[in-house]
Design a protein that fits this description.
- By secondary structure, the protein is α+β, with helices and mostly antiparallel strands.
- Among the domains are: 64 residues, Arc Repressor Mutant, subunit A (Orthogonal Bundle), CATH 1.10.10; 117 residues, Glutaredoxin (3-Layer(aba) Sandwich).
- Helices cover 37% and strands 7% of the residues.
- It is built from 10 helices and 5 strands.
- It has a 5-stranded mixed sheet.
- A hairpin with a 5-residue loop joins strand 2 and strand 3.
- Helix 5 crosses helix 6.
- The longest helix is centred in the middle third of the chain and has 19 residues.
- It is globular, with a radius of gyration of 27 Å.
- It binds FE2/S2 (inorganic) cluster.
- FE2/S2 (inorganic) cluster binds next to helix 5.
């Protein structure tokens, strides 16, 4: 079987990209100027500029790539390489709500895989696919540093913690029906395009949104409290290796090192040639020497 030249796709974009309408271009030029002013070198502004073009169309189109390249004096290949490296940039038109289910290890075993399978079935879409009404795009996401609230679902990068298949189903039903949903923590939910503009570095002007961003949640702070001695557990588990049972309070018998005294295997002092005169550093002796 022969294949004509026209049948062969090398996966390359068809150029040139359609330019933005003049009014859109003027607005983006003004925004880009503001972004560029934050950086000593213009190419450092590429990531926020990609968010900026994403805020215009909801994804990084070929037009957006050409705009970034022209603005930063880069090639479209360079811009494409960056935009395809980072998972926060979408390369095709998608839904109003990007529903990302963390299926990284911890979330997966805590129920993330079950949530993803349930949503896939409920919405009738697969990974990176959008519902027919254009409302929801479902996707696997990697760890979002919220493992202490696993399993985590993110909608337009806002956290919905400790989800179950049932709560996640209710969440997407509410999104599709246009009902208000509140993230578990952080700023209120906004549209994907508005989120992209905030990620480009423009202020979130919704009343109370910045204040709501807050800090880490209680589950994230437990370790810090333990390290500061503010939340030492009342009962202490003593390993059988710690010795024979002893009278009196355990703390009077066995010194329990504080977290700052307790070295991890990475922190423990290593035997080096400097601390081990029996085995000085230097070239290995040849046999017979
Ligand atoms: S594994 Fe899901 S947030 Fe870390």
């Amino acid at each position: 079987m022969t294949t004509s030249r026209q049948d062969v796709s090398l996966g390359m974009p068809q150029l040139p990209a359609t330019p933005y309408p003049a009014e859109v271009r003027a607005r983006l030029d003004a925004d880009a100027e503001e972004v560029l002013a934050r950086y000593p070198g213009s190419r450092s502004a590429l990531l926020p500029l990609l968010h900026l073009v994403q805020s215009e169309e909801g994804y990084v189109s070929r037009t957006g790539i050409a705009f970034c390249a022209e603005t930063l004096d880069l090639t479209t290949a360079e811009v494409t390489a960056v935009s395809t490296f980072y998972s926060m940039y979408r390369r095709r038109p998608s839904g109003d709500y990007q529903v990302g289910v963390c299926t990284n290890t911890l979330c997966a075993v805590m129920g993330g895989d079950a949530i993803f399978d349930t949503l896939k079935e409920h919405l009738g879409v697969g990974n990176n696919e959008t519902t027919e009404d254009g409302k929801v795009t479902l996707e696997h996401i990697e760890c979002n540093a919220a493992c202490d609230f696993a399993p985590v679902v993110m909608v337009n990068w806002e956290f919905f913690d400790n989800q179950t298949p049932e709560s996640a189903t209710q969440l997407v039903d509410d999104l599709i029906a246009g009902r208000t949903v509140e993230p578990t923590r952080g700023a209120p939910l906004c549209s994907y395009k508005d989120t992209a503009r905030i990620l480009a570095g423009f202020p979130d002007e919704r009343p109370g949104a910045v204040e709501a961003t807050g800090g880490a949640g209680p589950a994230s702070l437990i370790g810090l409290k333990l390290a500061k001695g503010e939340a030492l557990p009342k009962a202490r588990v003593v390993s059988p290796r710690a010795g024979q049972p002893q009278d009196g309070p355990p703390d009077a018998q066995v010194h329990d090192p504080s977290p700052t005294e307790r070295l991890s295997s990475h922190d423990a002092p290593q035997q080096t040639s400097a601390s081990d005169p029996e085995h000085p550093a230097g070239p290995a002796a040849e046999e017979g020497e």
